[in-house]
Write a structure and sequence with these properties.
The radius of gyration is 26 Å and the shape is elongated. The protein has helices at residues 17-22, 24-33, 51-62, 68-78, 97-103, 121-134, 170-192, 212-218, 222-225, 236-252; strands spanning 14-16, 36-40, 43-48, 82-86, 92-95, 138-144, 147-159, 162-169, 197-201, 256-264, 268-281, 284-294. The protein is of the alpha+beta class. Helix content is 37%, strand content 30%. The longest helix is centred in the middle third of the chain and has 23 residues, at 170-192. A hairpin with a 2-residue loop joins strand 7 (147-159) and strand 8 (162-169). The chain has three domains: 1-68, YefM-like domain (YefM-like fold, 3-Layer(aba) Sandwich); 80-189, PAS domain (Beta-Lactamase, 2-Layer Sandwich), CATH 3.30.450; 193-294, 2-Layer Sandwich (Beta-Lactamase), CATH 3.30.450.
């Protein structure tokens, strides 16, 4: 078998690391039947498979070194969520890097759950003990001593003789919802205004979901814009300069502004102000956001 060849996978054979943590049960069942390939930050990184298959593939090479718990810990260490594994006595058995960042010394191995957080430790210890004793999952909110202004939403699930805690930054989620609402309001205001338009450009230079405001400014329709490269809307004299600025935004993850002329109905050159900013996802620029504002000649 050629292990360097990328496998051809269907949707039921692959999952993101975050999705696996949230819905481990169903994916565990699938892994018992066939290997499940795990993606992290868009890259294929790990494989979840049954113990029998792992022993068949790995034991001749690894001998006594094959340890399923080490594989689970390696997966947890890749995730952005804070993950703590508690063993008997509600003591920390494993903490991934995100948990150590959040909880500091409270996430040390063999630390009692009550010492993970000064503000929430007593509630956490009681919850961990209940989950271990009852085998029933629970949720609770935590305050990390290092970040007292932020709230973590945690889920505790039984895990063997212990308990698995996965904590996400609930404050960040609330902030994201607030920013999304603000952006939605801005987009609606731009949509009904006659003074500005917003556009997005993909890496190939094409417009993404162009809006009515840009159609009004250029004297076209959204259907026509949907198949157009942004630079085809720019007057020929300005095209190379605007193209260089778009490349600069992508290469340097920086925002810039400039003046240019857009073609109205493909002919008349109308002066505009352009604001260009990168749209970053997963550590790389995937789109460029453009604000177009008509300017005085």
């Amino acid at each position: 078998m050629n292990y360097t060849t990328r496998p051809q996978l269907d949707a039921e054979q692959q999952v993101t690391a975050s999705e696996l943590v949230r819905h481990f049960g169903p994916w565990q069942d699938r892994a018992a039947r066939a290997p499940v390939y795990i993606h992290h930050r868009g890259r294929l990184r790990l494989v979840l498979l049954s113990l029998d298959l792992m022993n068949t593939l790995c034991t001749p090479h690894l001998g006594d070194a094959a340890d399923p718990s080490k594989t689970a810990h390696a997966l947890a260490d890749l995730l952005d969520e804070a993950i703590l594994v508690f063993g008997r006595g509600a003591r920390v058995a494993h903490a991934n890097p995100a948990a150590r960042t959040r909880f500091g010394g409270g996430a040390r191995i063999d630390q009692p759950a009550r010492h993970v957080s000064e503000a929430s430790g007593a509630f956490l210890h009681d919850a961990v003990t209940r989950v271990i004793d009852s085998g029933t999952a629970e949720t609770l909110d935590l305050i990390a001593d290092r970040y007292p202004q932020r709230r973590l939403h945690a889920r505790l699930d039984p895990l063997g003789d212990g308990c698995l805690l996965v904590a996400r930054d609930a404050t960040a989620a609330e902030e994201a919802r607030a920013r999304t609402a603000e952006l939605h309001a801005l987009e609606r205001a731009i949509h009904v205004s006659n003074v500005a338009a917003r556009a997005r450009i993909n890496p190939r230079g094409y417009l993404i979901a162009p809006d009515d405001a840009l159609a009004r400014i250029t004297g076209t329709t959204t259907d026509q814009l949907a198949t157009a490269r942004f630079l085809t809307l720019v007057a020929v004299a300005d095209r190379a300069r605007v193209g260089d600025m778009i490349d600069y935004v992508c290469a340097n993850n920086a925002a810039v502004g400039t003046r240019a002329h857009l073609l109205v109905r493909g002919a008349t050159a109308a002066p505009v102000a352009l604001g260009l900013a990168p749209v970053e996802r997963g550590g790389r620029v995937e789109e460029v956001s453009v604000i177009v504002t008509p300017a005085a000649a």
